[in-house]
Amino acid sequence: MPHTLTRWLPFLANTRTPFHSSDTANAPQAWHPAWLVVLVSVWLATACNVPLWREVAALPDHTGLRGASFGLAFAVIVAAGNVALLSLLAWGRGLKPALVLVVLMAALGTYFMLSYGIVIDASMLTNVLQTDVREAGDLLNWRLAATVLALAAPPLWWLLQRPVRPLGALRHVAHNGLLLLGAVVVLVASLLLVFQDFASTMRNHTQLRYLINPLNSVYALGHIATKPLRIDTSTMQPLGRDAQLGASYAGQTKPPLLVLVLGETARSANFGLNGYARPTTPLLSARSDLVSATNAWSCGTSTAASLPCMFSHLGRDGFEGRKTNSETLLDVLQHAGLAVLWVDNQSGCKGVCDRVAQTSTTALKDPALCPDGECSDPIMLKVLEERIAALPAEQRARGTVVVLHQMGSHGPAYYKRSDASLKRFGPECTSNALQECDQAQVVNAYDNSIVATDHFLNATIQWLETQADKAQTAMVYVSDHGESLGEGNLYLHGLPYAIAPDVQKQVPWITWLSPAMQSRSGVATACLQKDLAQRRITHDGYFHAVLGLMDVQSTVYQAEQDIYAPCRNTRQAPMAATTAPNTAHARS
Ligand SMILES: [Zn+2]
Known about the structure:
Layout: H1 2-12, H2 33-46, H3 50-58, H4 64-89, H5 95-116, H6 122-130, H7 133-139, H8 142-161, H9 169-193, H10 195-204, H11 215-225, H12 227-230, E1 232-237, E2 244-245, E3 256-263, H13 282-285, E4 290-293, E5 296-297, H14 303-310, H15 315-320, E6 324-326, H16 329-335, E7 339-344, E8 357-360, H17 379-389, H18 393-398, E9 400-405, H19 439-466, E10 472-479, E11 484-485, E12 491-492, E13 509-513, H20 515-521, H21 525-531, E14 537-538, H22 542-549, E15 552-553
Parallel strand pairs: 1-6, 3-9, 3-10, 5-14, 7-8, 7-9
Antiparallel strand pairs: 2-15, 4-13, 10-13, 11-12
Helix pairs in contact: 2-4, 2-5, 4-9, 5-8, 6-11
The protein binds zinc ion.
């Protein structure tokens, strides 16, 4: 619509409003850019910070006149912060596009904070940036459109009608400098007035800082953009280049085949197997030959945070403080000479499988398993045999490790994550605006997705059992993080680890070892069933548990981190275990 474009583009290009272009006598007076900045900042600090002010109003220690003056000073601080930020962006023709962008960003941020109880930090924004089109589509709904319209339309409408007074370059620099200085003075003065209250509030309620909109997003973007300064991303540190196969491979009759199922958004609390009141895992619960660790904890609260951490040798603390990126668990397995394959039914492996064979099943066309353009997890089993057969024969003869990356319980459209034949609980929430549904309906849809995972894991074990004549098999299933289902008005996941509720961090961890794998690895299921029933374990142990199970010997392997080590009796050649094996790595 070229006509519409010519009506709108001149606004953005900062010229006179075309509503009056033929009638210059009636044209509104041109505004100094500073006014636009100040007024938009006030709108941002008020309307676009409802989640923040709601939290501040609910603070128990802020009541009466003192509470009100604290709130007021806080609002002035936020507004002044916005002015300071926007004064840096307010340059001539760039002013209006910059303000439009910031307003839209703030409106979107407000919607997600209000609707899902999330906060915005670098890790959350990394998730957003790594989201694929289908995942984004799951989040779009009318409520989002209405919220963004309500928060962004009034200032944008107003803004686009203001003609802006052009300033010469030098005056522009001077005026922006004054605006910035003024904003900083107001900010500091307000801060000093309530400093005691402000300092203690920010210390005791750390989540507030992630609610200050849109400074939270700008800060997070800056954090991501400056990451190369903190982590040397240009080099990839080699890892485990000394890796060798242990003595269990000498003269082996059949090679080992380990399937690592990487779960998505499955929380331990909703697994029938782990004591949940509902029978969400009927097939797994009926098996006596597997082990479910009920006290297992994730490394992060999102896929982007957990995945690279799980496959790293560093553990959570070491991974967060790393100065360079390293090769991963999959590289070490490959260095040892094993065949390694990553099968992805989700949005990718976040870099951990970059140097091993990989295949994606998301775009396959299978009428039964991929209705409506989305493939359910069992599609991975359908292609598995053929994809494994395509790996180098020499490596397969030694042994194979396959990762199956599930779609699992990925939200918010949980109802899409289970086939109609597997739906046990109803009615389901069929909206992606979860807050529109009763919490019970959200839980019903989520629980059905766990039933689907139960079905998938059982099918994986059954498939491995059919391979018993060719390989010595095992399956290890761990989820990347948990999920909030409306408890305390929180939804989804991705809260900063320190303030995230346990349901976002406690994950299912299920181990199935075939009899052949038990004797091969020296790890007995019966022992694990006792040892892992209560013991606290974390993703920190994943890297070492897999190396231990596959009998890969390397200096990067640490027996004291290997969650299966306490149950390993004599294997042909004990690994370089230096510490007493009973020190489960715990984090409180
Ligand atoms: Zn995830």
